[in-house]
Amino acid sequence: MTGHDGKRPARRGRAEAKNDAGSGSGSANSSRATLLWFRQDLRLEDNRALHAAADTSLPVVFLFVLDDGAAGDWKAGGAGRWWLHGSLSSLAASLEARGARLILRRGDATAIVPALAAEIGAGEVHCGLPHEPWMRKLDEQVAAALEKAGRRLVAHRVATTMDLDAVWSKSGTRFGVYSPFARACRAAGAPDAPLSPPRTLACPGPQPSSDALDNWNLLPTRPDWAGGLRNSWQPGEAGAQARLKRFLDGHLDGYGASRDAPGEADGTSMLSPHLHWGELSPNQVWHAAHDSIGGSAGRRAGFETFESELLWHDFSAYVLRHNPALPDRPVRGAFERMEWRRDPAALQAWQQGRTGVPIVDAGMRQLWRIGWMQNRARMITASFLVKHLLLPWQEGERWFWDTLVDADLATNSVSWQWIAGSGIDSQPFFRVFNPVTQSRRYDRNGTYIRRWVPELRELPDRWLHAPWEAPEGVLTEAGITLGQDYPRPLVDLSEGRNRALAAFRRIAGPDKRTTENREQADTDTGTGAARSGKTGRRADDAPAAATGRPGRGKAASPSRSKGSSPSGRRAAAGS
Ligand SMILES: Cc1cc2nc3c(=O)[nH]c(=O)nc-3n(C[C@H](O)[C@H](O)[C@H](O)COP(=O)(O)OP(=O)(O)OC[C@H]3O[C@@H](n4cnc5c(N)ncnc54)[C@H](O)[C@@H]3O)c2cc1C
């Protein structure tokens, strides 16, 4: 819905506080201070929790708790911890510049938050509204503990453009598909306008004690694998603003095409870690992008596509909110019976970017080096793991969790299940990305491959995407001996594809949706039918007719690699 001035009406009235779990029994009136509990909203601008705390006119105490116990398997991974250190350091400096202090505590938040609220005499604790299941459970426990003492927890929407509890279909059901969800969001109008930081922050005289950030050991030391991350990112609000400006100044126009070209510098905004850690709100990003359109048709087109991606971010949170088991279990029950293979050597080759398929290796090495991978490359590498290698999507999800600076429980699990075909509004399993076709289409000149797989640099474009097809003389001239300078492919692409399709056929029967997929698979003929609602997500392979030979992979339940610490996994993979 667009207003006559070309601007959408605002989604006002949707930023109200949530999870107001306490009784509000009057203790707020006798409060001496307010507690602001930061989580994944590490910013001063457009932070509704911060505004609500400041509006009490009481001194505000700022707290961040590192509670790895509550997060369990989903505590921040190695790259996430590196980012968190930088982001907290930046936030602490911004607060100090305003005469305030960030209090750091490590341990059980259900004990720490109520105890600190009692210590400073806070009637209210303000925080951002989370969508991670473990954090929601934690909030319930903290709210209950506070309530016992007549205090209350007040959560504010800080991480999505929409109030996710207010998005319903016309028939009153939840959306299970992205496109109508996005239509409903767009129809609701523009996201709320961003708020500037409060002018003044009243701070208490004596401050509570705080841990020293350096003592949390969030940065890797032995080995220090973070050099590529340091060279690529500036965690914190200032870095986020600079990245947003760079993208909007030069790259919104043409984003529709460049977002699919992994080799294009700044082809996408690279805002994902800043958005994940809440150094920028999606509302700030939306408004800045919208305001930058001016009269340009190209920028408007870029904006429309960019907005779709921001809504995918909201949709992922929405899906996780309504499917708390999503990070661990397939949404489609039939996939519980999938006969995934167990092949640690293949898994490690994938993690290290040594599969012998250049576009896959380029993506995995980019991830390793800078803690981020371009979206098209994420799709190709994920599909290769799940389909050509027939390894459980949870293995890939775990690896991404540990190595991505933007690792986000909602987006990561929704995306992995989308690739695996086991999730909500996913790509059907029988759509198998051919990595070579994808590579030729989206990295036509080989810029991406040459950057991240330099040993192939001298190969002519024609052979770069599939070196195993190159004549011996061409390889020799490029200085490559396959199996020595660069691996032979881990799997024959056509055999891998057939093995995956055979495994899929064995589970397809009893599950309604997968049966439908299979029937569709037998009749689809073109890429048009392969288009999903997801912008730019298109499978390029012909659909699976019932041609594959039965696979021989042994049934393996997905292992979660429990017990190996994230940084241990990074260290184990070498550099
Ligand atoms: C297997 C797989 C795993 C992924 N894991 C994560 C993850 O852990 N964290 C994460 O933030 N993204 C994840 N994505 C989604 C996507 O790849 C990244 O959000 C995107 O590449 C980030 O780059 P950008 O900021 O330049 O995006 P842009 O193209 O500039 O998009 C702007 C913003 O929109 C959102 N967005 C873009 N693409 C998607 C998408 N496909 N789904 C949901 N939101 C999107 C992000 O917040 C992004 O920062 C994953 C995708 C795949 C295929």
Automatic annotation (TrEMBL):
Gene3D superfamilies, sorted: 1.25.40.80, DNA Cyclobutane Dipyrimidine Photolyase, subunit A, domain 3, HUPs
Residue ranges of the region described as Disordered: 1-29, 504-575
Cofactor(s) the record lists: (6R)-5,10-methylene-5,6,7,8-tetrahydrofolate; FAD
PROSITE patterns hit by this protein: DNA_PHOTOLYASES_1_1, DNA_PHOTOLYASES_1_2, PHR_CRY_ALPHA_BETA
Annotated keywords: Chromophore, FAD, Flavoprotein
Family, per entry: Belongs to the DNA photolyase family.
Name recorded for this polypeptide: DNA photolyase family protein
Organism: Rhizosaccharibacter radicis
